[in-house]
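Quick one:
INPUT:
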């Protein structure tokens, strides 16, 4: 092994210089000639080792061992006359710990103690009680400094090694894979949220119940159960419980915060008296009972966030590779075709070159559309409908096919992973209508009432065609719908064309509530 970086060598230089200066001053004040000679010997050894540390090909093991052996021998010789010199024993474990971590500390301490005790045994004088006490004291001090150096070693390596975050991520991912087999409840937020709702329903007679999860500074419904009342009554009490971090009871409405993971809010059935039910005490017991479920849900939500972040980064990477690689190569082919078209040898060749130029232009357009598809995503500041409207305008400009988008959205948003999958399904449905259906017009209807949503994409094209063996678009759309607990249906349209429908939530269509949705029509 060799010295990889200079930060360690600079720290060892500072440590050795400080200790040498301190001991020299002490020797001069005490006029201790034996100690001065010992310090000169140690100082010479440290100069050699220090110069070696600044050389990139110096062996770490050799340098730290040589340092420890020299210090141990000198302390063994000089400690009979001056115990103060034993303070130098604390330096080699510290410097070795900086370079090699805990292994270096153990090696340095072993080398210097073997050298010191070995010299004492060989010389026949042995060590006196004060010497043993001094050796023990400074060895323990060296061990403590070595442990501190080990921590510094890890911190400096993480800050200077560009691969350190990846190594750390590998460790965490391996642990996650190992742990995932023991997760009895799984990592599906909808299933875990449904289990919490069922537990509350078993304990309390409710008319409406909603489980909210945080999204930024607001709450987003994850699962809801509407039996006799409006779930809109739960929103205010849930926000209050979330802000206060404690249970809230307001008449028949109640809310239970589950740590930082979620808030359960509900409305009791109007056929019961909350006072006779002792609602406050039952809610406190229910909160303790739901604590493990809250941990399960929080874990699932964190995993979903990690998966979405990793997927988004991979999509951006692929878009960069396509733009800087495949797209540039195809453009170069286009320039070559243009050069050939300038001097055709015959009319037949000119016709073929023109056909080739059209195909190259078509492929370039396909690549550009693929790059746009990969890079487009839902931002934190825009809604699902706004993102769908933006991609529809871009697709319409590229293809020339009119796309009309109708938006009916409430202010409360869906969870990020649900919005992302719905967006990709809608995007794929529009792409299919443009590429394969030969549609002359496309209609998109997006209706969102969290946690429910329904999106339809209809066209007037050729309808369902025979699937190619290399076509996986519909299968991927179904998989995306399954990931968020949604339903995907593909139905023929009267007069020709197809209608792709994706819905999430308990009902095929969100109910109309007292809160009026924002409705917008976008004609692309």
């Amino acid at each position: 092994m060799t010295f990889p970086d200079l930060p360690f060598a600079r720290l060892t230089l500072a440590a050795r210089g400080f200790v040498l200066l301190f001991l020299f001053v002490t020797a001069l004040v005490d006029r201790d000639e034996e100690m001065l000679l010992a310090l000169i010997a140690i100082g010479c050894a440290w100069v050699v080792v220090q110069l070696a540390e600044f050389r990139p090909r110096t062996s770490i093991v050799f340098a730290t061992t040589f340092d420890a052996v020299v210090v141990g021998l000198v302390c063994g010789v000089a400690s009979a006359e001056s115990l103060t010199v034993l303070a130098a024993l604390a330096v080699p474990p510290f410097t070795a710990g900086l370079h090699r971590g805990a292994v270096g500390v153990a090696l340095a301490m072993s080398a210097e103690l073997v050298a010191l005790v070995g010299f004492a045994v060989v010389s026949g004088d042995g060590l006196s009680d004060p010497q043993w006490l001094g050796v023990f004291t400074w060895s323990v001090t060296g061990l403590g400094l070595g442990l501190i150096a080990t921590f510094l070693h890890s911190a400096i390596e993480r800050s200077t090694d560009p691969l350190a975050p990846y190594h750390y991520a590998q460790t965490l991912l391996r642990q996650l894979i190992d742990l995932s087999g023991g997760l009895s409840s799984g990592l599906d937020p909808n299933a875990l949220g449904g289990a919490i709702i069922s537990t509350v329903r078993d304990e309390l007679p409710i008319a409406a119940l909603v489980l909210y999860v945080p999204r930024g500074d607001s709450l987003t419904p994850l699962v809801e159960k509407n039996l006799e009342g409006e779930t809109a009554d739960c929103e205010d009490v849930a926000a209050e419980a979330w802000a206060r971090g404690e249970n809230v009871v307001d008449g028949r409405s109640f809310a239970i915060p589950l740590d930082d993971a979620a808030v359960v809010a509900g409305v009791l059935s109007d056929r019961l008296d909350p006072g006779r039910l002792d609602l406050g005490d039952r809610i406190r017991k229910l909160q303790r009972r739901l604590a493990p479920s809250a941990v399960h849900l929080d874990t699932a939500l964190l995993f979903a966030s990690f998966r979405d972040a990793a997927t988004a980064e991979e999509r951006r990477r692929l878009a960069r590779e396509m733009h800087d690689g495949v797209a540039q190569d195809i453009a170069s082919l286009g320039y070559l075709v243009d050069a050939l078209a300038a001097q055709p040898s015959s009319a037949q060749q000119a016709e073929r070159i023109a056909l080739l130029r059209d195909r190259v232009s078509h492929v370039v357009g396909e690549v550009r559309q693929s790059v746009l598809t990969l890079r487009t995503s839902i931002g934190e500041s825009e809604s699902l409908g706004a993102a769908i409207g933006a991609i529809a305008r871009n697709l319409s400009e590229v293809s020339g096919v009119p796309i009309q988008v109708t938006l009916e959205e409430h202010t409360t948003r869906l969870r990020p992973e649900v919005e992302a999958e719905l967006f990709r399904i809608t995007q794929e449905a529009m792409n299919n209508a443009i590429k394969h259906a030969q549609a002359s017009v496309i209609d998109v209807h997006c209706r969102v009432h969290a946690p429910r949503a329904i999106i339809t994409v209809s066209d007037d094209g050729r309808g369902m065609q025979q699937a190619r063996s290399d076509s996986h678009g519909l299968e991927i759309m179904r998989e995306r719908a399954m990931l968020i607990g949604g339903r995907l249906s593909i139905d023929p349209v009267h007069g020709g064309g197809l209608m792709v429908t994706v819905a999430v939530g308990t009902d095929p269509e969100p109910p109309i509530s007292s809160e009026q949705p924002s409705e917008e029509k976008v004609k692309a």
